[in-house]
Design brief:
The complex is a heterotrimer of chains A (306), B (99) and C (396). Chain A is α/β, with parallel strands linked by helices and 306 residues long. Chain A has 12 helices and 10 strands. Chain A has an 8-stranded mixed β-sheet, with helices on both faces. In chain A, strands 2-3 form a two-stranded antiparallel sheet. Chain B is an alpha+beta fold and 99 residues long. In chain B, β3 and β4 form a beta hairpin. Chain B has a domain of 64 residues: Alpha-Beta Plaits. The relative contact order of chain C is 0.11. Chain C has a 7-stranded mixed β-sheet with strand order 3-2-4-5-7-6-13, with helices on both faces. In chain C, strands 10-12-11-14-15-16 form a 6-stranded mixed β-sheet, with helices on both faces. A two-stranded antiparallel ribbon of chain C has the order 1-8. The chains are: A alpha/beta (306), B alpha+beta (99), C alpha/beta (396). Chains A and C meet through α3, β2, β4, α4 and α6 of A and β3, α3, α5 and β9 of C. β1 of chain B pairs antiparallel with β9 of chain C.
Chain lengths: 306, 99, 396
């Protein structure tokens, strides 16, 4: 698909999007950001969608017999095997003569950046017709808030308890977006549920591309982050505004920053309102800002931006 | 049907009442989530401008588009308050549920 | 009946069996000694002989996960592995049986590291008896081909819907060339209808699959799975009978008894070793010794009934295990002995552990096993476990 045809895809907005709900009656925590991502993506993708979910929050809250929260065909997969199982679904359905359908994965940060990375790499390598969406809430939330490869520096989790000897997580987020892009994937993007229309646009674009596509969407978790349930969208928006999360696309071999703010909002403010970062010292926060600036310097130097 | 609704689930009494393998009708809901709620969103229709921000950001999909305004499916609203917090017109109030 | 015999290896015979079964999706990762099967299948897909999607997955775990995905929408699927690869996909094996996906898998029986060995024994598949798969072990290349076709019919049967593993001894069978009859596609199509299942996602009838169930329901799903495995016994026997009638070859169902009618000492075999034991048993018979063979074909479901019946006719039984469950005994023996205990048989029993990591089991050793059994008849019948053909002294 060329850029021109992608641009001709009818825009999906809250006004014109289907009133059908495909992720409904689930048992996610109140204010769950992951469910916003899953719900909106399915509303864009529509009823002819197979969704595949590895072990993780959205699988745990969506399929508790007899409460079946997905209105479309959906399946829980092995933890490391979501991408390969989705590939199998796409291959099987195609072999049976089915057309005009989409296969989508909804996997958490651990299911994507850690245990599922190998299978995801295989899926992209084969260019299987699957959209892989990683909802990133920055830890293994379903099992009780343990550190994953996408847990940022300084995060208090149950396996990186912040204390006298440990600042919380000692490592920064694994650079999943660029790892995926390095496969020469047709389309990859980052998004945040704090900017839902941007996320919808990206899902809509991926929907119309035949082959492997990837969206990394930042999705808040009030339970794991220690934030009020009503601020889930706000906090995911602030993460972008303070520059710790960036909105970008990789397409036709080029990186593009979708949002390049002249000035960042306060990192300190973003961090200190969350229980998981409450312990952070000014030095810790300086580390986070330093890492952010290094990353942005590189992105602005090498990537397209307005 | 726009949204799945609660249905009667007849508990199996014979082994053959179970599906073959762990698979079941998509969207079958045996219970509501209303009991989770301690605060309920109440929409002031005079203030609502139908911008649909609340509709877009509801984690549970319980804000419904209705004739130029929005309404809430109280069977599945968990009362998280995201809608009220994001509403640009302060048209949604979170009212404590009477127990 | 016209014949179409060609000279091929066990791996190639398996590939032909798969081709004739018309799978929609094949997902496999290479591992010695399974590779020839997947190479041939790739060539068949390339040439157009086989209309299937061959998925180049990046691991065995993904191979089986992809097969499950395809099966979950109603596609017929195949995968193949061996040894370390089988163990790498173990999580997915339990998943496939619990999900009731009737995937067929070829396993080239190979030793399990450490120490590394690419050669054959049966420790890989025998360690997986509890993963909920039907397990059949074949003796020669023809049986390998025929069992691939039968496997789909058995696994996909509405009363079974359980994945099935067809085991071929690594190298001894996978890489040995034999004359093999290739059945006509028309005949296979008549025998094996297209795959139909209620256990699938479709746009006409959307499903949520592979769900979680609370303690209130979980046991019932496991009961169903167990019931399906027991129901498979009748399906196996009927399938075998139908196959025999259509193709003129019969493998006798759950077990094959060979010269057991008046036998005093019987050796239990699994897989390709049966061929060598047949030769020895025939020689001993010629010398007047009353010996026989019980070739176990299926380890799951287990041929308990057949073993119990046999135990009342014989005086001694030996089990050759190309396997050891460390700290106890060979796994085949444990299973056989459990059936014997239920039949209250007081016959002499012995477990022969050998062939590990590809070591040859010679005719002379088999003859000695039979003689041990015959000599044991007059003793008190205690079971003993013996590693045979150790090449060094031990402290025992």
């Amino acid at each position: 698909m060329t850029n021109e045809t992608i641009m001709n895809i009818p825009r999906v907005t809250p006004k014109n999007m289907t009133e059908q709900e495909f992720f409904y009656g689930h048992k996610a925590c109140a204010g769950c950001g992951g469910s916003v991502a899953v719900r909106l993506a399915l509303k864009v993708l529509g009823e002819r969608t197979y969704s595949a979910l590895p072990a993780g929050c959205m699988a745990a809250v969506g399929f508790i017999f007899p409460q079946m929260a997905f209105k479309n065909n959906s399946i829980i997969t092995t933890f490391p095997g979501v991408a390969s199982m989705a590939s199998g679904i796409a291959a099987g359905a195609k072999a049976l003569g089915q057309t005009d359908f989409k296969t989508v994965c909804f996997a958490g940060d651990g299911g994507t950046a850690d245990i599922g990375l190998q299978a995801l790499s295989g899926m992209i390598d084969r260019d299987d017709d699957v959209l892989y969406i990683c909802y990133d809430n920055e830890a293994y939330m379903n099992t009780g808030i343990q550190k994953s490869g996408l847990t940022p520096y300084g995060t208090h989790t149950t396996t990186t308890p912040a204390g006298k000897n440990l600042p919380g997580s000692k490592t920064h987020k694994k650079n999943v977006f660029e790892i995926i892009a390095a496969h020469d994937i047709k389309y990859a993007a980052t998004a945040s549920i704090g900017y839902p229309q941007d996320f919808i646009n990206k899902v809509n674009k991926a929907k119309h591309i035949k082959g492997a596509t990837f969206i990394h969407v930042y999705a808040s978790c009030p339970t794991g982050w220690g934030t009020p349930t009503n601020t889930s969208i706000e906090i995911a928006r602030e993460a972008v505004d303070c520059g710790l999360i960036f909105l970008a696309e990789y397409e036709n071999g080029d990186f593009k920053l979708n949002k390049n703010p002249k000035e960042f909002a306060s990192v300190k403010e973003y961090l200190t309102k969350q229980g998981r970062f409450k312990h952070m010292t000014d030095e810790d926060i300086e580390q986070v800002i330093g890492f952010r600036d290094m990353k942005w310097e590189r992105m602005r130097r090498n990537w397209n931006h307005k | 049907m726009e949204r799945p609704i609660k249905r009667d689930f007849k508990r199996p009494t014979h082994i053959n009442d179970y599906p073959v393998g762990p698979q079941y009708e998509a969207g079958f809901l045996a219970e509501t989530n209303a009991s989770w709620r301690t605060f309920r969103p109440v929409i002031d229709l005079d203030k609502c401008i139908n911008c649909l921000i609340c509709y877009m950001v509801c984690p549970d999909g319980t804000i419904m588009k209705r004739e130029g305004k929005v309404a809430v499916d109280y069977d599945y609203c968990k009362g998280c308050g995201v809608c009220a917090h994001e509403c640009p017109k302060d048209a949604i109030a979170m009212i404590k549920e009477e127990l | 009946m016209k014949t179409n015999k060609i000279f091929i290896s066990g791996d190639e015979a398996a590939a032909h069996g798969v081709r004739l079964s018309r799978p929609h999706v094949i997902a496999a990762y290479p591992i010695t000694p399974q590779t020839i099967t997947v190479e041939r299948l790739s060539e068949m897909v390339e040439s157009g002989e086989l209309d299937a999607d061959y998925m180049h997955v990046e691991s065995e775990h993904s191979a089986l996960s992809a097969a499950m995905g395809a099966s979950s929408v109603g596609a017929r699927t195949f995968t193949a592995t061996s040894s370390q690869g089988l163990l790498y996909m173990v999580e997915a094996m339990h998943y496939a049986s619990g999900g009731r996906y009737p995937i067929v898998m070829m396993n080239a029986n190979r030793s399990v590291a450490l120490p590394w060995s690419i050669y054959g024994d049966q420790r890989d598949s025998l360690s997986q008896l509890d993963s909920g798969w039907i397990q059949v072990y074949v003796e020669d290349a023809q049986e390998a081909l025929d069992m691939m076709i039968q496997a789909y019919k058995i696994a996909e049967h509405a009363k079974v819907l359980t994945p099935m593993m067809v085991n071929l001894d690594g190298f001894i069978l996978t890489h040995t060339y034999e004359m093999v009859e290739i059945p006509d596609q028309d005949m296979v199509d008549k025998f094996l209808p297209p795959f139909e299942t209620p256990n699938k996602m479709s746009f006409e009838n959307p499903k949520n699959m592979a769900f979680s169930s609370q303690p209130d329901d979980n046991t019932e799903f496991k009961y169903q799975q167990n019931k399906a495995m027991f129901d498979a016994i009748e399906v196996i026997e009927n399938t075998e009978k139908e196959f025999g009638e259509q193709f003129g070859r019969n493998y006798h169902g759950m077990v094959e008894e060979y010269m057991c009618d008046d036998a005093e000492a019987v050796l239990v075999t699994l897989g390709s070793i049966t061929g060598t034991v047949r030769v020895v048993a025939e020689q001993l018979r010629a010398r007047g010794l009353k010996v026989g063979i019980l070739k176990i074909r299926y380890m799951r479901p287990f041929p308990e009934k057949e073993i119990m019946e046999l135990s009342h006719k014989i005086k001694a039984i030996g089990v050759i295990d190309k396997d050891i469950s460390f700290g106890y005994e060979g796994t085949v023996f444990t299973n056989v002995n459990s059936a014997l205990a239920k039949s209250n048989a007081t016959i002499f029993k012995k477990n022969f552990i050998g062939g590990l990591g590809g070591r040859d089991i010679t005719k002379a050793e088999i003859e000695k096993m039979y003689k041990d059994l015959l000599a044991g008849i007059s003793t008190n019948g205690q079971k003993t476990v013996e590693f045979f053909n150790l090449k060094v002294e031990t402290n025992d």
